[in-house]
């Protein structure tokens, strides 16, 4: 038993280190993709572009969106992805998923979905939970190349005694089982590692189950796999019951959502009032894109590469108190975004704050105590997402 405990501890430390590495890589890529996608959007507004040039820019943007999806998988694994949790019934979610799952599984695979009638509600991001079920179902299909059965069952469970795998509490259990080839004991130890895959080359990058694990954990839940080679696999997802007073019996992280990509905003639309915006971002590519985009919309823009530089700029600027909005990165060397925002809200009454970051937003949405409005924009973001969130925060449009 002590040896098994030591193995679990070592594996947990390894996964934590991998998660931190994945989160750091995803953060850097979020900055790069923000600059790339934003620059593409600005180029697409240039009416002098040739048709072939326009097509090439669109191709760059499409591939950037695919890269952004991979970034979100890394963030999900490291539990740093932005989510939109809400009270949901898994009965409705699974019912809506039925047709999609049958299409994905194909004619050789039989799908059965059963939900307990009085299923408790949970608090989760619907889109993210759907991704969990889809990933598990697709993995089950791939384990049954000659066909088989997939069963999804959701029911209420009470765990009375705490153990190493699951704390005591009330949960909704969603179980996904298959009759496939199963997973060997050696591979079971590594199935949640990012980039580990037993599939043949070209059929996956090994982020599916890593993403599932991250989403479930970020929702405050747990996932327990079981498998017997030659007899199939079962993945049990436990989500805490959401109770009537707006809390759950197991605490889950609350944060704001990552927005989907949208088409560029038209260049000929000007903001109704020339608000003064201060952009603070240590990543040069992101800062340059944001400044150009806002200037084209008719805003007055000041910029700084750090919070310290921004404070110095404001001391020298006679119109400093006229700044309407702070658009700031969250994590920066020295003074970070929330600290800068708190300082400015004391010296600039009524200033609005819009944070941007590749990390989840729940930790900095409520940092201000004096009633100043604070919003969040997840990286990577498009031109339209930036302008829309700016106008929402300033209440213009």
Can you walk me through this structure?
It is a single chain. This protein is an alpha/beta fold. It is 41% helix and 20% strand. Strands 2-4-5-7-6 form a five-stranded mixed β-sheet. Helix 3 (90-105) runs parallel beside helix 4 (126-142) and helix 4 runs antiparallel to helix 6. The protein is elongated and about 70 Å long. Residues 250-272 have low confidence and may be disordered.
Please supply descriptive tags for the structure shown above.
five-stranded mixed sheet, 10 helices, alpha/beta, five-stranded parallel sheet, 397 residues, 41% helix
In N-to-C order, the SSE pattern is HHEHEEHEEHHEEEHEHEHEEH
Strand order of the largest sheet: 2-4-5-7-6
Radius of gyration: 24 Å
Shape: elongated
Number of helices: 10
- How much strand? 15-25%
Average of the residue pLDDT scores: 77
Decide which structural class fits the backbone: alpha/beta
Number of strands: 12
| Uncertain ranges | 250-272
What helical percentage do the residues reach? 40-55%
For the record, give the distance between the C-alpha atoms at the N and C termini, rounded to a whole number.
64 Å
**Largest sheet report:** 5 strands, mixed
